[in-house]
Write a structure and sequence with these properties.
heterodimer; A: about 250 residues; alpha/beta; Rossmann fold; six-stranded mixed β-sheet; four-stranded antiparallel β-sheet; 9 helices; B: about 450 residues; ten-stranded mixed β-sheet; 8 helices; about 20% helix; Fe-S_cluster_assembly_SufBD (chain B); SUF_FeS_clus_asmbl_SufD (chain B); SUF_FeS_clus_asmbl_SufBD_core (chain B); Iron-regulated ABC transporter permease protein SufD (chain B); ATP hydrolysis activity (chain A)
């Protein structure tokens, strides 16, 4: 599914990722944990193709294709989805217009017929209902006036609509209370399938009690310094990240 | 602009052939206009109100009447096709065959100015004089005033060739169910027209007017429009103008409106055409409780220039004004926003609000914004704001991360930016039409048609 080899990346000339190696197979859920400033969000932006994140070395292969050669929208259309740490508010663009445009762009890329307004509406209503989102939320401007939890649910709704084969959840738990976290986790879990892989990026173990990973990796100062099973998350929760050293050691 | 000597020839040649020539009233109006033009001339950038819009480079614009293309088989824009009272002008000349006034309720008249003059020059002159003229010096500022905002010379030019235009009168208490449309179609390669548009809405009446300026093959034409609006006590006038001429066209318009007690004047101006287009709106709130909404949206690209200049004059107490103007500027396009609010000493309890926002899509795009408040009353609520910015990079990335191609994402964000202005329009027909025209223009600007075909949610 996804193969990251010796990935180095800089932001504003400063090297943040210093040789990441990671293989994710279909259906697997991997968690990346690490202290603040370890490069977790940089990794998610590099994988989704954000401007300003420059890859200086290494490769990322997604379903046999060179992911790094693709534009952001092409990656999304190929099946890469980034659930944002801070979903963006877009005044004046309704959720429905946004999602219909996105869905039909992705469908077009896949060679599928575009959905008409009625087909789209039927689909979004069904998906929104499963996330406990009402009509009002789906017709409002994208994330405008949404609470933190509503914004995250809106991101998961987008994921449910676009049905990506690989999803990156970037600090999805940040800013959520326990009820909102459960709701979002339930949404994510319902999207787990043997064909869909996920990369869950988080600082805390808490989220991983709800979205249980197959593999856990520790990212510290630009490198994966340890990998293990789901029990590694519990160990980190108990011991903290201290043993993984300081930036100077990396 | 053609030399004044040429204009003199033109004036002397054309005057005897204009409708109503020889009738005292009209002869005097035209002579006054011509004299005013000679006195004031074409505004230069030394005039405060024209500091940012330079007409000097327009040398060579033909002031001769346009020669229309013979073919009138073009589509005529409409906010509600088949359901409006419509006057059509081709290259500034009234075209009865293309017009469709339909049945008007008692108390309502809708005439071409030419028709009115031909049937009774005296009545026409009387009607023409009933309307307010733009004021040369509208500010109260003490001391030398360089004469801000006046379009005196252009109004004079319009008066010198007074012949064409539209006159709408709505009698007391009448509500006109269907919108009135005044459509100007440019088909000529060049040439000028100077229409006068007059709207008189009597007390308690209500009407919607859509004004279109479009090109159907037209080129470097010059429209020099003067509008007069009177809104009587408690009356409501909703007025939208859609300026969508050819990229080579020159469009200069001034509208002067007076609003009586408890009356409402809503005006919206869409400016998407012309190499240079300026609309100068002056609204005087003359009676207690009068209100106005002035809104505008523009899109300029290439090396085009759009100017929206307004003056909202709070003369009486308890009046409200709200102005929202937004535009998108690309390439070497340039936009001008000048908005002045005057609150006169008697205009206590004034509520005035003004907002101007510009979206710059290129490094060479330019906006000159000049908001002005002149307040002489002490118990008032007034605010204004002006911003200029670029597309939100975060929002662009968010849209692209969902699979939306970059150019479509940009088009969506531009549409969202401008749609906020369309929301200012109270009338549903006008609003829907404005939104559609904005989408169409963005489509031509970006090459992307934004798909907003999503049915309204709810049962």
């Amino acid at each position: 599914m996804l193969e990251i080899r010796n990935l180095h990346a800089t932001v504003d000339g400063k090297e943040i990722l210093k040789g990441i190696n990671l293989t994710i197979n279909p259906g697997e859920v991997h968690a990346i944990m690490g202290p603040n400033g370890s490069g977790k969000s940089t990794l998610s932006y590099v994988l989704s193709g954000r401007d300003g994140y420059e890859v200086t070395e290494g490769s990322v292969t997604f379903q046999g294709k060179d992911l790094l050669a693709m534009e952001t929208e092409e990656r999304a259309a190929e099946g890469v989805f980034l659930a944002f740490q801070y979903p963006v508010e877009i005044p004046g663009v309704s959720n429905t217009t946004f999602l219909k445009t996105a869905l039909n762009a992705v469908r077009k890329h896949k060679g599928l017929p575009e959905l008409d307004a009625m087909q789209f509406l039927k689909l979004i209503r069904a998906k929104a209902k499963a996330l406990n989102m009402n009509d009002d939320m789906i017709k409002r401007a994208v994330n405008v006036g949404f609470s933190g939890g509503e914004k995250k649910r809106n991101d998961i709704l987008q994921m449910a609509m676009l049905e990506p084969s690989f999803a990156i959840l970037d600090e999805t738990d940040s800013g959520l209370d326990i009820d909102a976290l459960k709701l979002v986790a339930d949404g994510v879990n319902s999207l787990r399938s043997p064909e869909r892989s996920m990369l869950v990026i988080t600082h805390y173990q808490r989220l991983l009690s709800y979205i249980v990973p197959d593999h856990v990796h520790v990212l510290a100062y630009g490198k994966i310094v340890r990998s293990g099973g789901k029990e590694l998350a519990l160990e980190l929760e108990a011991k903290g990240y201290a043993e993984f050293g300081s930036p100077e050691a990396a | 602009m053609a030399a004044i000597a040429t204009l003199k020839d033109l004036y002397e040649t054309l005057s005897p052939g204009l409708p109503g020539a020889g009738a005292a009233g009209l002869d005097r109006l035209r002579a006054d206009g011509y004299a005013r033009f000679l006195a004031d001339g074409i505004p230069t950038t030394k005039v405060e109100g024209w500091k940012y819009t330079n007409l000097r480079d327009l040398a060579g614009v033909s002031l001769a009447p346009a020669q229309s293309a013979a073919n009138t088989d073009f589509d005529i824009p409409s906010v509600a096709p088949g359901k409006t009272h419509r006057l059509v002008f081709v290259d500034g000349v009234f075209n009865a065959a293309l017009s469709a006034v339909g049945t008007l309720p008692p108390g309502v008249t809708l005439d071409s100015l030419r028709g009115l003059i031909e049937s009774s020059p005296a009545t026409a002159a009387e009607v023409l004089e009933r309307f307010p003229a733009p004021k040369a010096d509208t500010g109260l500022r003490v001391g030398p005033n360089p004469g801000r905002g006046q379009s005196g010379g252009l109004v004079g030019l319009n008066g010198a060739f007074l012949a064409e235009g539209a006159v709408l009168t709505v009698g007391e208490g009448v509500t006109l169910a269907q919108p009135v449309e005044i459509v100007f179609v440019a088909t000529a390669a060049d040439g000028a027209w100077h229409p006068r548009l007059l709207i008189d809405v009597a007390a308690g009446a209500e009407v919607t007017v859509a004004e279109h300026h479009v090109a159907r093959g037209g080129g470097a034409t010059f429209a020099n429009i003067v509008g007069g609006v009177r809104v009587g006590e408690g009356a409501i006038l909703r007025h939208a103008k859609f300026q969508e001429e050819d990229d080579a066209a020159l469009h200069l318009a001034s509208v002067t409106a007076t609003v009586a007690a408890s009356a409402t004047y809503e005006t919206f101006v869409l400016t998407t055409g012309g190499r240079l287009a300026r609309t100068d709106v002056q609204v005087r709130l003359e009676g207690s409780g009068a209100s106005t909404r002035v809104s505008g949206a523009y899109g300029v690209d290439g090396s085009r220039h759009a100017d929206f200049t307004s003056l909202i004059d709070h003369v009486a107490a308890n009046c409200t004004s709200r102005e929202v103007v937004k535009g998108v500027i690309d390439g070497k396009g340039r936009a001008v926003f000048q908005g002045k609010i005057i609150v006169r000493p008697d205009a206590q309890k004034t509520d005035g609000h003004q907002l101007n926002r510009a979206l710059l899509l290129s490094d060479t795009a330019e906006i000159d914004a000049k908001p002005e408040l002149e307040i002489y009353a002490d118990d008032v609520k007034c605010s204004h704001g002006a911003t200029a910015g670029e597309l939100d990079e975060e929002a662009l990335f968010y849209l692209r991360a969902r699979g939306i191609p970059a150019d479509t994402a940009r088009a969506l964000l531009i549409a969202a930016f401008l749609d906020e202005v369309a929301e200012e329009i109270g009338d549903a027909h006008l609003r829907a039409y404005a939104t559609a025209r904005i989408q169409d223009r963005i489509g031509r600007l970006t090459g992307i048609t934004v798909d907003t075909d999503v049915p309204v949610l709810g049962e």
